[in-house]
Amino acid sequence: MLETERHRIILSAVQERPVVTVGDLCALTGASEATVRRDIGQLHLAKKLRRVRGGAEAISPPQFVGINARPFAVNQTLHIAEKRAIAQAAVDLCEDGDAIIVNGGTTTFQMVHPLTTKRLQVFTNSFPIAEHLLKHSKNTVLVPAGAIYREQNIILSPFDTDGSNHFYARRMFMGCRGLGPLGLMEGDPLLVQAEQKLIDQADELVVLADSSKFNQRSSLLLCPLNRIHTVITDSGIEDRAAQMLEAAEVRLIVAEAATDRKKRAQEE
């Protein structure tokens, strides 16, 4: 990742939270501690943030604190070919007339393009997913009540009465922060609260997770593996991760990205 991009991510992070630790910024940027500390030092000297022990804070602290999740604009640039293939495989599971829940995220956002050929009832807490489907499809679109979190482009409510309990779905499609032996993980309590409400409204939980998610962890457990019906990932999944899902009796679908298909065709 280029230095200018790291700086943009760091400045965005300190505007979301009162204080961001070096560890948080390493996770967001994929850079080493030494690199992040150097970036913080440069931005501190440029008076764009304030260096504090173990991290950084905004010079003008935000009035409205965001959630602990990587910004949508950043995630959207990562593993894009894999996400498109995973999203297509997810939409292939849907039939016209189905009622589905699509949780906010950059992998689930890639579902909007193949969904334009379907006629479904779609409940989503993703502002860009709802907007795209309204403009470019004939799907019925429903959204919960709540506040729009701009950085993540999702609608979240701290209250139980957000309307989601009135929607029943055959399947819920969602991404995640990480996926491990204990189950599905997220990074913020408000996200966990909102997603648990939605999970309870669907018969089947389908997780869209590129292969990098099997190596990521978080302190917050969203649901155990045995609650997941299907995991859709890419061909980079390691054998141990596939065996973990098999042991939990979770259906595994491996979606091949266009770049992988082209490479395989050249080898043949």
The CATH topology label of the largest domain is Rossmann fold
For the record, the CATH class of the largest domain is Alpha Beta
Largest sheet: 7 strands, parallel
Please give the share of residues in helix.
Answer: 25-40%
Average pLDDT, all residues: 85
Quantity of strands, as a count = 15
**What is the CA-CA span between the terminal residues?**
33 Å
Write structural notes for this entry.
- By secondary structure, the protein is of the alpha/beta class.
- The chain folds into two domains: 3-58, Orthogonal Bundle (Arc Repressor Mutant, subunit A), CATH 1.10.10; 72-264, Translation initiation factor eif-2b, domain 2 (Rossmann fold, 3-Layer(aba) Sandwich), CATH 3.40.50.10470.
- It has eleven helices and 15 strands.
- The protein has helices at residues 3-16, 22-29, 33-45, 72-75, 80-91, 106-109, 112-115, 127-136, 189-199, 239-247, 258-267, and strands at residues 19-21, 50-52, 55-57, 99-102, 121-124, 140-142, 147-149, 154-156, 169-174, 178-180, 183-186, 202-208, 220-223, 230-234, 251-255.
- The strands form four sheets. The chain has a seven-stranded parallel sheet with strand order 6-5-4-9-12-14-15, sandwiched between helices.
